[in-house]
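Sequence in, structure out. Go.
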Amino acid sequence: MNEDELMPGEEQASPEEQQQLEQAFDLALQMIHGQGAAGDQIAQMVMQSKDIQQGLGQAVATVIIGVDKKMPLSGDLKVALAKEVLGELAELAAEAGAIAEDEITDDFIDKVVSHAYSQYLSAREAMGELDPNELQASVTEAQAAFGQQQTQPQPAAKGGLLQRAAQGA
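Output:
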């Protein structure tokens, strides 16, 4: 594993963070390749999905949640681990013929990461583990890392759908 950067624009991982990441990736590999239900379920998420990007995203999120339960990680380390897990799962999917290697482009990876993040948040919410303050901090941090502006809520338009629904129309 050669993961020196945690996120765009961040410093290199400290030796402690690098060691944590390696331990977390070892746990992830055990989940993916291990005997039993976990590995089989992860493979099914990818192979039986009608959309390979969604299947990979769901599988990445599942692995990250599983690792995080055994070894809690910071947000930066989760992102770095997700990249490593995605690389492993995409390679396995290509070997199994679910996707051609030349289809694994930057755009493809961006879409899988988006699906993985959505799946991760949905799963944490369903488990009652999603703290709204943590979510807002995560979104703000991601926007800052990628140079995006935080959007302000837009008021409902007069005569718009929300206004009509509120009036019972």
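Check: Helices lie at 15-33, 37-47, 52-70, 75-95, 106-126, 132-145, 161-166. Residues 1-9, 148-156 have pLDDT under 50 and may be disordered.
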